[in-house]
Structure prediction request, 194 residues.
Amino acid sequence: MFLPDSSVKRYYFRMTSSAGSGPAAPTPATSAFLLAQLGAHAARRFAERVATLDLTPPQSGLLRAVAIGPGQSQQDLARHLDTPPTRLVTIVDALEDRGVLERRRNPTDRRLHAIHLTDAGRRLLGEIRRVAGEHDDALVGALTPAERGQLHDLLTRVAEEQGLTEGVHPGYRNLSAAQAGSRRPAAAPRAEEA
Prediction:
C-alpha cells in the first residue's frame, strides 16, 4: 500500500484486523512511536546544525558537561555520560587538539587528569547554545510559548520516570569511534591561532 508523504510523516500505521471483519484498519501512532520519530528527527537535525561548528553531537555534549562540572576526571565524565572511557578519551583528544578543552593534573590525585574548557572552548560553547536555541525554536515552532512550556514539563516528567540522566543523550552508550568525533579536522585552527 502506498501512503503519501504527508500521511507517512504524520502517522505510523499498525495494520490490525479481526477475523472476518474486512480489510485491516490503520490506527494512529502511539505516543512512544511519535517520541521515537521526533527524537530521531531532532537528533539528525541537531547533528546537521552542530556540524556547521565542525562538531559532532557527542563533542558538543561533552563540552556542555565540562562547562557544568569543570575539573572532573575523564573517568567521572565517562560515568556521567554513560559512555566507555576509551570513547571519551577519543572525544577529549579531538577537542584538546582543537584547543577547546585542556587536561590538567588533578591537584588531589596526580594520576588523574581534570578536564577544563579553554577560553576558545567557552566561546564555542556560546555558539553551541545559540545553535541549540535555534534548533529548539525550529523543532517546536508550531507551538505557542505556553504549549512549549507544557510540552517541556511533560517530557521532563516522562524522562525522570524513565530514569534518564538530565541533559545526557542515551546514545553515548553505543558510540562508534567515528560518531565520537575521532576525526580531527585538519583546517580547524587551534585556540592560539584563532
